[in-house]
Amino acid sequence: MPLTSSYKTSYTPSIEAVQEVSFQKNAVDSEYGYSGGGIVTLNMKSGTNSYHGSVYYHNRNPALNAFGDPTLPRTPGADETIFRGTNLKMYGGTIGGPVVKNKLFFFSSYEQWDDHRPISVKITLPTELERQGNFSQSRVGNYATCPAGTTCARPIYDPTTSTGTNGVRQQFAGNMIPIGSFDKTALKLLAELPLPNLPGNDLNWQGVKTENVDYWNLSHRIDWNINEKWKSFVRYGQFRAHLLEAPPDGTTGKLFPITGSNRYGLNIAADTVYTINPKMALNLRANYHRITDEASVPTALLGEEGLQNLWPNNPWYTSLYTNDTIYYPAVEVGANNFSSNSNIRLGRTGREFWQHPQGWGGSARLNWYAGNHQIKFGGELRVDKGKGARFEPINLDFRAQLTANQNTNGNVNTSGSEWATFLLGALDNQSSGRRTPVQEVVNKGYASYIQDDFKLNDRLTFNLGLRWEYEPGPVDAQNRLSQRLDLTNPIPEFQATPPNMPAQVLDL
Fold first, then answer.
1. Coil, helix or strand for 482?
2. CA-to-CA distance for 32 and 376, rounded, in angstroms?
3. Cα distance between residue 125 and residue 428, in whole Å
4. Residue range 478-507: average pLDDT?
5. Whole-prediction pTM value?
6. Which residues contact 424 (CB under 8 A, 6 or more apart)?
7. DSSP-assigned beta bridge partners for residue 315
């Protein structure tokens, strides 16, 4: 999928910097395009001949909230502030006024957010015994006492002993994996997992992590009345947002599931209006925008040395990375097994998105007022480009199926353990190593239009418009996009070895 700015916004101004917002959802005139629905127009405040401004502060304090998640266990007398919702501080201000009276004006705004939002977490982690290969206490369910005649132990089987048509396996003696069978890489990953904080072997870690948001927003606008016929303005806006989740104090391990991102936006625009005569005015506009939208979890960085430590003298992974930022692999456990939490992803919680779109454009419009006709015509150029990828270099998948009673149709309801599979380093076929190249796509758009608002009388006005748009389509200099398939040009490989099409298809 080609990456450009798409639905992403390069700048969202502070509400205190906005003068007016208008919406047109019907009868949009031909000046506006690149939209299948309505048009939103936003005008920002400008300075005047007198100084004016504002200051504001907003605080949302969790101490005033009720307990946020009733499913979490509570300790009498403990500090429960973190369980009671977001701790948001939002403050900012504006100021505007003259630089040269009647000639040059400025208006500036600034806004800052400090937000700390709690997120409930319930995951299954290996117990101390399971980390030693001892699964003799790993139960089928969370029984307070075992049913009569049962041990509640969940049997685990050696995947290397599969025999027969169904791959029947031998159970590990005493339901314990010999230390010599432990996978060395798995042990290193295991050291980056915190211990459970609750008894049992199902959903045995519960707590609250915190999403910390550091956001600021800055805008400036300069208006210049050059003379009575000529007016211009330049506007600059920028925001930066850093999001990073943090585990509770005392929780160690770089495989604890946390996420983070950097989201930046920059927008610059200039506009000038020249009145040619009382019936005609020319408007020229130019703009530039740049966006950063990327995963960023510095606390989960692994680095090249970390990769070498996980797989010493075995650099099989070198071709998978196109970005210098190297995180811990995504470790998927708990899928299709006995855990109540049907899917647990540790380490990298999603794709490492890395998107840096930017673009620029310009437009010209001439307004002409002729009697009952208000005519305008003009043109527009847009260039939208961007570098981007969604990296997913190493995914390690561990399923209970690989330590269940047999290879084919193994009963994972009563046998097998994803953590036993993890200790053995037995990878499921969902595991993957992928190299994702960085795309650099350029998309251009051209448009011209004419609009005539003809006032026939005081009660009837005709809005007549015609617009032409042309977008040649996204272009990647390295030809990594599937597009412009020429069906009139035969494919030599298909001609040499035509596919075997069923008769039912040919008869359609």
1. coil
2. 12
3. 19
4. 76
5. 0.81
6. 159, 177, 181, 182, 183, 186, 402, 403
7. none
- pLDDT (tens digit per residue) in 370-397: 999 999 999 999 999 988 889 999 999 9
DSSP structure string for 31-97: T--S-SS-EEEEEE----SS-EEEEEEEEE-GGGSPPS-TTS---TTS--GGGS--EEEEEEEEEEE
The alpha helices in 258-403, defined as continuous H runs, are 303-310
Q: Could you read off the pLDDT of 124-175 as tens digits, one per residue? A: 899 999 999 999 888 765 555 566 666 678 899 999 999 988 899 999 999 9
Q: Is 97:106 a contact under the CB 8 Å cutoff?
A: yes
Q: What is the pLDDT of residue 146?
A: 62
Give the single-character DSSP code of 28.
Answer: -
The helix/strand/coil state of 407 is coil
**AA letter at 450:** I
pLDDT of residue 288 exceeding 90: yes
In this structure, how many other beta carbons lie within 10 angstroms of the beta carbon of residue 161?
Answer: 12
Identify each DSSP E strand in 458-507 by its residue range: 460-470, 475-476
Confidence of residue 507 (pLDDT cuts 50, 70, 90): confident
Between the alpha carbon of residue 144 and those of residues 50, 198, 414, the distances in Å are 75, 14, 18
DSSP tag of 507: T
Alpha-carbon gap, residue 383 to 445, rounded angstroms? 7
- Cα–chain center distance at 332: 20
Q: Which two tokens stand for residue 68?
A: 């946020």
DSSP 176: B
Please tell me the distance from the alpha carbon of residue 396 to that of residue 294, in angstroms, as a whole number.
22
| Tokens representing residue 116 in the block | 């700390």
Instruction: Tell me the pairing of strands 87-100 and 104-123.
Output: antiparallel
Question: Helix, strand, or coil here: 306?
Answer: helix
Does residue 234 carry a pLDDT above 80?
A: yes
In whole angstroms, what is the distance from residue 170 CA to residue 161 CA?
6
pLDDT at 338 exceeding the cut of 50: no
- Cα separation, 331 vs 423, in Å, equals 12
H helices of 124-181, where? 128-131
User: Residue 326 has which token pair?
Assistant: 């190297």
Q: Round to whole Å and give the CA distance between 134 and 146.
A: 18
Q: What DSSP character marks residue 420?
A: H
Q: In Å, how far from its chain's centre is CA 276?
A: 48
Kindly report the backbone phi and psi dihedral angles of residue 127, in degrees, each rounded to the nearest multiple of 5, phi listed first: -75, 170
Confidence of residue 2 (pLDDT cuts 50, 70, 90): very low
Top mean pLDDT of 30-34, 63-67, 107-111 is at 107-111
Neighbours of 213 (CB within 10 A): 17
Is residue 350 pLDDT above 80, yes or no?
Answer: no
Q: What is the rounded CA–CA span in Å between residue 185 and residue 183? A: 6
Taking residue 451's Cβ as centre, other Cβ atoms within 10 Å add up to 20
